[in-house]
Amino acid sequence: MIEKVKGNKQLIVSIVEKGLGSTVVEASKKAGCEGGTILPGTGTYKDHLSFMSYFADPEKEIIFSIVDETEAEDILLAICEAASLNEPGNGVAFILNVNSLLGVAHLLDC
After folding, report:
1. Could you tell me which residues are beta bridge partners of residue 12?
2. Cys-Cys crosslink for 98: which of 9, 21, 83, 85, Cβ 3.0 to 4.6 Å?
3. Tens of pLDDT along 14-73?
4. Does any domain span residue 57?
């Protein structure tokens, strides 16, 4: 029998400079998240910002973290602070609603 995870879950997606993925996961864990998945990525904005003598590394890390809806905002703020996302060019993080969730057996009792 296939069981869906109970409760309202959200997905926090963070896109940061290469090397900051573990910092984001560590900050999110301290704020209540169980963990995350870090994927490599490549940004496309390098040429756009080069006219201002700002050369950003296009290599990124994308972090996916599934969290309970009640903790999502606090975790997002912890990520923002740890990765200095309010500074230009440091990345972005956002929250998406999760409608269905399968394959995470440790969350089935939630």
Report:
1. 65, 95
2. 9
3. 999 999 999 999 999 999 999 999 999 988 765 555 555 555 568 899 999 999 999 999
4. yes
